[in-house]
Specification:
The structure holds three protein chains of three kinds. Helix content of chain B is 30%, strand content 25%. Chain B is of the alpha/beta class. In chain B, the strands form five sheets. Chain B has a six-stranded mixed β-sheet, with helices on both faces. Chain C has one domain. Chains A and C meet through helix 5, helix 6, helix 11 and helix 13 of A and helix 3, helix 4, helix 11 and helix 14 of C.
Chain lengths: 367, 521, 310
């Protein structure tokens, strides 16, 4: 009897992660062919349309980049926590909380000058996201409560809080019976960069870059690496683990909140409960594919943005948006499998390991 | 099926266990290089060897944890190829590892029957069955208690019960006395004898000669992964001969370095109390001083507060009461970083995970204590950090790959050199070294010991905590014994008698009335 | 507030509770073996759509139910393969499974949205029992899924705590290396537990499309998968307490649409936050208490296991 086993490679394959991502993309596209054939579409034409709608023109790029903004920031939020071995599964809720913060400022300061109002909105967004992460952060740092579950639970709380606001206080009196929040004033909207792209693209890139530098080049980032590698080592080096956990989770929430603020100010007319359309969860996949590195987060976010925008565009051809959803999950599963293969090799495990060298006849040596 | 190559013991029976020409390599290490072992049923058989001699690897091969690269394994004369621990279990081999394989939130009975229970598990019936089994072999236990509530000695008994429950005919114990008091060790010896008399083969792994001579019938000695002496009769073999076999050509007890120039008091611990991880008292009023130019050794059975003492001095465990003074200043509440700046070098017993960060590269680990000195503003100066690391690597002759590679690829000896080098590079006034040579090969041990002595000679006060009595007797200028969180005895290492030290470790003696006994060989 | 509306509330509580209980039991079994599966929402969606589509084709609700269980188990096994065989991060794999399951379900169910399934699992008539006032309508005129949930709960308690297999499953969740050393295959145990968990989630999904709603639409699971994940923690990984939690959380779901009829001036939206807030509270209490004694959470939950790594 023999079977396949995974054996750790002595050295990780170089360039394994981009390769893994490529393989994941291939797997997704191949499975996608079958899904499309199954629903009676021409896969080539659909893929061509997806590519054109997401990367085929400056306008397409502008839409893709807009989408990459919340994905990248959510991915960054997860990666910031992940660099210390923590899981922030609550980006979805923190995006909502950030958007709520921004929306509240927009209501209060509707007549402020645009620059001041937007700055205040984005600031409030960061605070909103950070506030939602504060509870899990304190609980994790001081009581050791598992942050995976607490952040996950707060997603559901945040979205219900938003629903409650939209159904109540924030309901637009002109919306008749529909639970809709008031429209944003024009001065609450982010300026345009090119085509459809708003300046949030630059802000997000900037934030990712800042974290990238901070994580790799500063003493703060070094402390994070140590704390993420081994908590006891961090204490030994004089790094307060509690404080690191607290700051990292709150920062992570702030980054996700920032994404919510930009999404509201840059991409929406009013705050709705669909504002974060799974960006927080997609961000976890983005961060995982980027191995929790900020530089990778930006690249993966753009590619994921393209897949999402492409997926939306083909709905006009009668293709269910679910195809694009499935593709995203398949990219990840394909990439995980490929990633494992860059660290392990598959070997045939032979049942009976025969002795490599001849064994002496034992009876010859027995006294 | 009986193989014609089978050898037999003096009574014409096939050996219960027979390992022949076992080879096992790990990346960078050859753990077994043609080791042999033959054990008869009804005996307690010692497998002796120094740390790194390949004892544990050989036993893990016997227990199906590792597979040999080459070699043969016979149980009762039949060839076996174990793929998994389950195969070894099925062949009647029970193993008690150094780290217990127990589930804390399960009861004793659940732990014992795991993997070998009836299809339907009735609580009351398994508890009474386990109770009966324990009684039969004279093992004291309470089957309905949760394992997390048990002491180390009690947990070990559960491990033995697990093997007996499966009716293991071959029981392997890996350094079983490390967690026991001498009293508990005697009880263990009685249980093992009971099992041997029952016709089972007991394999007892140890590097402690005294236990071997008092517990065992036969001994096989390993050195450098090879068998250097097989199945010696313990009764007719001299202990010094065994010691000679264990260490080979290198002297059994390395020569004592000449004493240093003793100066002022650099480390003073006064009435120190602290709790362990479970919130139970670990240190119970420790009094201790170490002066410049001396090495003070701490001996004791594991779990008597040595670990906590090192942690408290290093600032990694909070103090209940008492004081810790470094170079004459009270540093009881100083942070680990402040203590390092004040001249404390600390070599923790857990190399990876405390002393070194396992996933980080060599440079990151080299600057762990001093990274703030390599900063320009908020930024880390990569050049200065690399230079620092290169200097460390050169000065302490650490063999590494590229410095930006993870330390995961370094051997144990080089990891320890990196850690010790980092701590000693700035010549600290006080050095606390906890188990600094554990698990290292002979050269590694020597290198680390030399570094500690060199520090002492330039005026450091060294506190050496070790489970290796030979090491303590060789290096210490004064030897203290810890028991139940207190220093219970002090010895002069050049004249102290091992047996008296052992009794002090068991808490049977008070420091004030230690009378050296003369016991001839 | 009259008798009929209270009976209606209790009836809905029991049926929502059973829905949550089925899914939570599956998650509990997976977690007991050491695998955190955040893909419940996706597995439920797959169960829902598979049951629905097969009911449309065959008009046989029992075949449809079987299909839903198999679909849930199969998609759950994807998580099992990635986390157990490949050792991937359980959080990432589980969330991807949610995305995959929800997406795939939407794909499979496109085109037949809103149509009744053609075959439903109708409430069981227990004869005289069903006529008992109060207890009859609340307990004895329920969908077969409710009784399946009760049976599944008793069975999983018995298997986990009273059999050799269950001992091994719980051990795998506490310490994989110990379980391995005791001669059990951790990989087989965990794969099996995740697949069974998926099957139960699939059954819960089928409850939606074959009995509760009964029709298919995208997003039909509506976050109940997350409640199931919460329930496992709320119930401290014990089938009995999870059942009580399921009734409590079921009550909040049942109350949500009835608050107004009871004349209670409380936002149903805020009420629906309750399960999550309670779960966070329970988690905090567990963590505080686990300083003194082991936490009820499986110690090896979320930790991948590979043998012979040195």
């Amino acid at each position: 009897m023999s079977r396949l086993v995974l054996v750790r490679r002595e050295q990780v394959l170089r360039g394994g992660q981009p390769l893994a991502f490529g393989i994941g993309l291939m797997v997704a596209l191949v499975v996608g062919v079958f899904l499309l054939l199954g629903s009676g579409h021409d896969p080539l034409r659909i893929y061509e349309r997806m590519f054109e709608a997401s990367m085929g023109s400056p306008k397409a790029w502008s839409v893709t980049l807009n989408r990459a903004v919340p994905l990248g920031l959510a991915g960054l939020a997860v990666a910031v926590a992940g660099s210390m071995g923590l899981w922030n599964i609550g980006a979805e809720g923190q995006i909502m909380a950030g958007a709520m913060g921004a929306a509240w400022v927009a209501r209060v300061g509707g007549d402020w000058p645009a620059l001041m109002l937007i700055a205040a909105m984005l600031g409030a967004a960061i605070v909103g996201g950070a506030l939602l992460a504060l509870g899990p952060a304190v609980a994790r740092a001081h009581i050791g409560v598992n942050e995976i579950i607490t952040t996950l639970m707060l997603n559901e709380v945040a979205i219900r809080l938003l629903q409650w606001l939209i159904h109540g206080w924030w309901k637009d009196p002109e919306s008749q019976n529909f639970p809709l929040a008031s429209m944003l004033a024009d001065n609450a909207k982010l300026p345009t960069l090119f085509e459809r792209a708003h300046v949030g693209v630059v802000l997000a890139a900037l934030m990712i870059a800042i974290f990238g530098v901070a994580a790799s080049r500063t003493a703060w980032g070094y402390e994070l690496r140590v704390a993420g590698s081994a908590g006891a080592t961090a204490r030994y080096a004089g790094i307060s683990l509690e404080r690191k956990i607290l700051t990292v989770l709150v920062l992570s929430g702030g980054v996700a909140g920032f994404a919510g603020g930009i999404e509201l100010s840059g991409n929406s007319d009013r705050i709705t409960e669909n504002l974060s359309n799974g960006f927080g969860f997609a961000g976890i996949i983005v961060a995982a594919l980027a191995l929790m590195r900020p530089s990778g987060v930006a690249a993966v976010a753009v590619l994921f943005g393209a897949v999402q925008i492409g997926g939306q565009s083909i709905q006009t051809l009668g293709v269910s948006s679910s195809v694009s959803t499935v593709l995203q999950a398949l990219i990840l599963f394909g990439a995980i499998a490929a990633g494992v293969l860059s660290r392990y090799k598959v070997e045939l495990d032979v049942a009976d390991a025969q002795p490599l060298r001849p064994t002496r006849r034992e009876s010859d040596t027995t006294p | 099926m009986r193989n014609e190559l089978t050898s037999t013991d003096t009574l014409g029976q096939p050996f219960a266990v027979e390992l022949q020409g076992i080879w096992k390599r790990f990346p960078g290490v050859v753990a077994n290089a043609g080791a042999d072992l033959r054990v008869s049923a009804g005996t307690v058989h010692a497998v002796l060897g120094e740390n790194g001699a390949g004892k544990s690897t050989l036993m893990n091969i016997l227990a199906g944890v590792y597979r040999p690269d080459a070699g043969q394994l016979r149980i009762d004369g039949e060839i076996h190829h174990f793929r998994t621990p389950a195969d070894a279990l099925a062949a009647g081999i029970g193993m008690v590892h150094q780290e217990f394989r127990l589930i804390p939130s399960f009861t004793v009975a659940d732990n014992v029957v795991l993997g070998a229970a009836e299809r339907i598990v009735r609580r009351s019936s398994i508890e009474s069955a386990v109770g009966e089994l324990a009684e039969r072999f004279g093992i004291a236990t309470e089957p309905d208690r949760m394992v997390w509530q048990l002491s180390m000695g009690e947990r070990q008994r559960v491990e033995i019960l697990k093997a007996l429950w499966r009716d293991a005919q071959i029981l392997v114990l890996d350094e079983p006395t490390a967690v026991l008091t001498p009293g508990e060790a005697d009880e263990l010896a009685a249980v093992l004898r009971h099992m041997a008399n029952d016709g089972r083969a007991v394999i007892f792994i140890s590097h402690k000669l005294q236990e071997v001579t008092s517990f065992c019938d036969e001994a096989t000695v390993l050195r450098g992964g090879k068998t250097v002496a097989a199945s010696l009769s313990v009764e007719s073999t001299d202990a010094t001969e065994l010691a000679g076999l264990m260490v080979g050509s290198s002297p059994a007890i390395s020569e004592r370095p000449p004493p240093g120039q003793v100066g002022e008091e650099l480390l003073a611990v006064h009435k120190l109390r602290c709790m362990d991880d479970r919130g139970l008292p670990a240190l119970d009023g420790i009094e201790l001083t170490v002066r410049s130019g001396e090495i003070v050794g701490i001996a004791g059975v594991a779990g008597n507060g040595q670990r906590e003492l090192a942690q408290v001095i290093a600032g990694l465990r909070s103090v209940e009461s008492g004081t810790v003074c470094l170079t004459g200043e009270d540093r009881t509440f100083a942070s680990p970083r402040q203590r390092f700046s004040a001249g404390l070098g600390y070599i923790p017993e857990d190399r990876l995970g405390v002393g070194l960060a396992p996933r980080l590269n060599v440079i990151d680990n080299a600057i762990l204590r001093t990274y703030r000195d390599h900063c320009r503003g908020p930024f880390l100066d990569a050049e200065s950090a690399t230079a620092h690391c290169q200097d460390l690597v050169d000065r302490f002759r650490i063999q590494t790959g590229p410095l930006f590679h993870s330390i995961a690829g370094l051997s144990g000896g080089n990891l320890q050199r990196l850690l010790v080098g980092r701590e000693l590079r700035g010549h600290p006034s006080v050095v606390v070294a906890a188990q600094p040579t554990r698990g290292l090969d002979v050269q590694g041990v020597k290198a680390i010991q030399d570094l500690l002595v060199a520090e002492r000679d330039v005026g450091a006060a060294v506190l050496l905590i070790s489970e290796d009595l030979d090491e303590l007797l060789t290096l210490s200028d004064r030897l203290l014994v810890m028991h139940a969180g207190r220093i219970v005895a002090e010895f002069e290492p050049t004249t102290a008698e091992r047996r008296t030290i052992g009794e002090a470790m068991a808490g049977h003696l008070d420091g004030a009335c230690v009378i050296p006994e003369v016991v001839g060989p | 507030m009259n008798e009929a509306s209270i009976i209606g509330l209790l009836e809905a509580t029991v049926s929502f509770g059973a829905l949550l209980y089925l899914a939570a039991l599956g998650e509990m079994i997976a977690e007991k073996s050491g695998i955190l599966n955040l893909g419940v929402e996706g597995m439920m969606a797959m169960g829902a759509v598979s049951g629905y589509v097969v009911a449309l084709q065959t008009n046989n609700p029992w075949v449809a139910l079987a299909a839903a269980v198999v679909a849930g188990a199969l998609i759950g096994s994807i998580h099992g393969f990635f986390t157990v065989v490949l050792g991937a991060e359980q959080v990432v794999s589980g969330l991807s499974l949610t995305i995959l399951g929800v997406g795939l379900a939407a794909y499979l169910g496109r085109g037949s949205v809103g149509r009744p399934p053609g075959a439903e699992l109708v409430p069981v008539d227990w004869g005289l029992l069903s006529d008992i006032p109060w207890a009859g309508p609340v307990l004895f005129t329920q969908s077969p899924f409710v009784y399946m949930a009760v049976v599944a709960g008793c069975l999983s308690w018995f298997i986990l705590w009273r059999t050799r297999l269950g001992l091994a499953v719980r051990a795998a969740g506490e310490s994989a290396s110990t379980t391995d050393a005791a001669g059990h295959s951790v990989a087989v145990i965990r794969m099996g537990a995740v697949a069974i968990g998926g099957g139960l989630a699939g059954a819960a999904g089928a409850y939606l499309t074959l009995s509760l709603t009964p029709q298919w639409q995208e997003g039909i699971v509506a976050g109940r998968g997350w409640i199931a994940v919460a329930l496992v923690i709320f119930g401290a990984w014990r089938p009995g307490r999870v059942a009580l939690g399921a009734l409590l959380f079921g009550l909040t779901l049942a109350l949500k649409t009835r608050l107004q009829t009871f004349g209670v001036e409380f936002s149903p939206i805020l009420l629906s936050m309750l399960p999550y807030v309670l779960t966070v509270g329970v988690l905090v209490v567990i963590s505080v208490r686990s300083r003194k004694r082991p936490s009820p959470a499986p110690a090896a939950l979320g930790v991948a296991y590979r043998r012979e790594e040195r």
